Amino acid sequence: MSEIRALIEQLVAAGLDPVEAAEIVTRAALHGAANAPKHRSAGAIRQERYRRNKASQVTESDGSDDPSSPEGSSPTPPSPKPQ
Q1: Is the overall model pTM greater than 0.70, yes or no?
Q2: Radius of gyration over every alpha carbon of the chain, rounded to an integer in angstroms
Q3: CA pseudo-torsion sign 58, 59, 61, 62
């Protein structure tokens, strides 16, 4: 005998209508299933861990490491002017 059937029988023995008892047990089971933690695959867990670790390695630059040049931020030197 299943646990659900046993619960319904107990509710009927306590004086509830069998249909009402079945509805109560069904609502309780659906509520429990909706609030149960979702099973995640190993790949999903691994991806979350990778993204969390990647985000913790990001550092912000304060701008002091950038070389300052009077010509601007171009990495190539200015070409000579023709004479």
Answers
A1: no
A2: 34
A3: positive
